[in-house]
Amino acid sequence: MSERLLVLVRHGQSEWNLKNLFTGWRDPDLTPRGVEEAHRAGQRLKEQGYQFDIAFTSKLSRAQKTLQLALGELGQTGLETVEDIALNERDYGDLSGLNKDDARAKWGEEQVHVWRRSYDVPPPGGESLKDTIARTLPFYVTEILPKVLQGKRTLVAAHGNSLRALIMVLEKHTPETIMKRELATGVPVIYRLKADSTVESVVDLAD
After folding, report:
1. 37, 73, 89, 127: which is the annotated catalytic residue?
2. Residue 38 · residue 11 · CB < 8 Å
3. Residues within the annotated binding site for substrate?
4. Is the pLDDT of residue 176 over 60?
5. Hey, CA dihedral for 61, 129, 133, 154, is it positive or negative?
6. pLDDT tens per residue across span 8-65
7. Pick the catalytic residue: 11, 37, 73, 159?
8. CA 131 from centroid of its chain's CA atoms
9. Which of 80-89, 116-125, 141-150 has the lowest mean pLDDT?
10. Is the per-residue pLDDT at 1 higher than 60?
């Protein structure tokens, strides 16, 4: 039986990460450091001998570029890839494009903290993590998970919050604990699943 392999990678640093801006569905490019992180993600996977049968990513260029740079390191630039809005980052609504310090000055430290770190309170015009999970999880269940269970080695390059939606199920987090689950940019997290779709093992490929 083929291994049931699922690898998650958060995109490399973006220009707006660097500028401390709320990004969400806005589409800034990777920084030079982000490009380096994407290459390093592919190098880490290559060092461990990984190859893939299918990849998934969002409709945002920072995730797509991270995926392509990583696949380039693996010699798999022509890999079948599915791009879907379901894997987009959480939509920060009216906060998008704002400096986080400016947002705190406008709405207050406590309110901005609630929007960023509560499970189910959305920012104005945007999504909570709960909303993001409601968008992302059905796509995982119907599109990604079946490929993994069929034995297709699957790579997903996406965003901190859309990946948290998958990790919440994989690692059985509660609404409280998932908010504390940090994901470094450009660091692959390797899951091997059992036939019942639960996790057999997980490895973080951080240096």
Report:
1. 89
2. yes
3. 10-17, 23-24, 62, 89-92, 100, 116-117, 160-161
4. yes
5. positive
6. 999 999 999 889 999 999 999 999 999 999 999 999 999 999 999 999 999 999 999 9
7. 11
8. 15
9. 116-125
10. no
Q: What is the DSSP letter of 24?
A: T
CATH number at residue 138: 3.40.50.1240
User: What is the overall mean pLDDT for the chain?
Assistant: 95
Which residues does 189 contact at the CB level (< 8 Å), separation at least 6?
Answer: 7, 8, 9, 167, 183, 202, 203, 204, 205
Q: Known catalytic residue: 89?
A: yes
- Would you list which residues are annotated within the binding site? 10-17, 23-24, 62, 89-92, 100, 116-117, 160-161
| Number of domains the chain contains | 1
Cα–Cα dist 22/95, whole Å: 6
CB of 178 within 8 A of CB of 164? Answer: yes
**Pairing of the two strands 154-158 and 5-10:** parallel
Pairing of strands 199-204, 189-193: antiparallel
Answer yes or no: 110 catalytic: no
Give CA angle at 203 (199, 207), nearest 5°. Answer: 165
pLDDT value at 80 more than 80: yes
Angle value at C-alpha 155, between 154 and 161, nearest 5 degrees: 125
User: What pTM was estimated for this model as a whole?
Assistant: 0.95
pLDDT tens, 179-191? 889 899 999 999 9
Domain, as residue range, for 36: 5-204
